[in-house]
Amino acid sequence: MQYSTLIDAARDYVMNMYQQHPRPDLVYHNMEHTKQVVQAASQIAAHYRLQEEELAAVYIAAWFHDTGYLLGEGKEHESNGAAEAGRFLDGQQAPENIKTMVQGSILATKMPQSPKTLVEMIVCDADLFHLGSKDFADRNKLLRQEIEQVYNKDIPATAWIANNITFLTSHHYWTDYVQTLSKQQKEENIDKLHKKLEKKSAESPSAAITTNIPVKEEKDNKEKKDKKVKKPERGIETMFRITSTNHIRLSSMADTKAHIMISVNSIVISFMLTVLVRRLEDYPNMIIPAIIFLTTSVITIIFSVLATRPNITSGVFTKDDIANKKTNLLFFGNFYRMKLEEYQWGMQQMMEDADFLYGSMTKDVYSLGVVLGHKYKLLRISYNVFMYGLIASVLAFMTAAIFFPVKA
What segments bear the compositional bias annotation Polar residues (predicted)? Predict the structure, then answer.
């Protein structure tokens, strides 16, 4: 079955539904939101190795997840959307396992979310992807506007902000990809909400009482946060990325230089052994210059090879290494002998601990620098030997030719 055709049919079906059932009061749960969820689902799914039918289920569930708003009460929109997706898939004669995955994913988005499979986790994270994005403030305003229009009631700003703080604080993403990707921005969104609530509470202290979040408590929390040293995390990540890239580029340049020296001196040695050595009986005065030249080339090659010779560690780590943050899982030499499950566990532990993660990145950059320094040191010796040895060899050949000529 052509899954791409099925996905395209789902897209056209949902877009047609929104055209046939116009709901101008749905300023948040509209076609724009659905497209954003599909895009987020595509981004998340690309990080995982899904089967074709699993990927198709992710896309179809993302398209249908909010169609229930067009078919009845918003409180039952997940059930209505899952039923509508089932009718569509039956009409397309889709495999039963895809229908099961799609309906399960849509039902899993019901708050509180309850995904059990990776496909369901991806759809759930895509549905609330905006919580950890820069678009949160704009999307949040539309959601408030929609609720006020649909239920015909006004929501006090302080109550809305307080509820958002509670929701974002208790919410967690299900996939490790989104957890890592959205962590910083989500925390920034929560901080902005705290600032807004503090400002609103200062303007109207009585409103803080209605939201069950006292002004004094908010100020105390703000003071505690201000005492913490804020790390420019994006700047740090950029610094690590640029530094690692520069080290790798310099390492590649060093390898290229070493290969040049090896190639040149290999040609020199081949020439010496095949041509000049055979003529030494006729030109005994050239023996010492030839030995100097040959020795120079051999030593140059030795140091060039040492500069490019790989060196790796044991390739294993233990749980104690992870607990004590002693191993660097970003370097293949520390895990290439481990099983995939053990490596995934170690990476998960590292991603959940910011200090461990940044510490590993620091170790990785440091290790690259140490290796690079050793490599350039050997390469410098190789070039020095070649330069001074070449000078000595030329002088020796000139001396032998001028002062110790061969008599006919």
Answer: 203-213
